[in-house]
Amino acid sequence: MAGEEAGSFYRRRGKRLLDLAIGIPALVIASPLAAATAMLVRRNLGSPVLYRQKRPGWNSKPFDLYKFRTMTETTDALGRLLEDRNRLTTTGKFIRSFSLDEIPELVNVLKGDMSLVGPRPLLMQYLGRYSQEQMRRHEVRPGITGLAQVNGRNAISWAEKFRLDIWYVDHVSLWLDLRIMFLTLVAIITRRGISQSGHATMEEFNG
């Protein structure tokens, strides 16, 4: 019973306190790196430096996700954006390889849109494609990193990604979050799972 109460407190209050306790100093420490990344994007990709997109958050509520741009806005003759692999630049690949594009998401964490750890926020159009079980990934705040990110990231299948997301939702705890944060640092250093085989990032989820 005591363990259940501790887990419930962490889910309701402690997780948010941890986000602020780590997120605020992390943003301060990362500021010089963020400034350097912004200048790199500005010089090689132009403006805007930041990429903003609506994503579903806690309880599927939309929020504006912030990231550094890694792709051009190149379109075809009909004005449609080209595939990711045709828009991802050398600069973008470098930024993604060290997860530098994720730094602005610390602002999302401080705003309460996201958590440091949780299922990654995907695209709004995917909401109508989820099964009832897959929708459970929105029972917690989305995260900058998560269980799926430290177990293959974009290199694993959608089915495995969702399985890990739901497992995380059912087992949220302080120690699990700390373990995922540590493994995230290892994944960034080793640069594992940045993209799915045959794709610049990850194939589209079609349900």
Task: Describe the overall structure.
By secondary structure, this protein is mainly alpha-helical. It has one domain (2-190). Helices cover 44% and strands 10% of the residues. It has 6 helices and 4 strands; from the N terminus they run αββαααββαα. The protein has helices spanning 2-44, 84-87, 90-97, 105-111, 158-170, 174-190; strands spanning 50-56, 62-68, 115-117, 143-145. Strands 1-2 form a two-stranded antiparallel ribbon. Strands 3-4 form a two-stranded parallel sheet. Strand 1 and strand 2 form a beta hairpin. Helix 1 (2-44) crosses helix 4 (105-111). The model is unreliable at 196-200 (pLDDT under 50).
Tell me the strand percentage band.
Answer: 5-15%
Distance between the termini: 38 Å
Average pLDDT, all residues: 87
- Count of domains: 1
Question: If strands are numbered along the chain, what order do they take across the biggest sheet?
Answer: 1-2
The computed structural class is: mainly alpha
In quaternary terms, these chains amount to single chain
Mass-distribution shape? globular
CA gyration radius, whole angstroms: 17 Å
Order of helices and strands: HEEHHHEEHH
- What's the helical proportion of residues? 40-55%
Question: What keyword list fits this structure?
Answer:
single chain; mainly alpha; 6 helices; 4 strands
Short description:
The protein is mostly helical and 207 residues long.
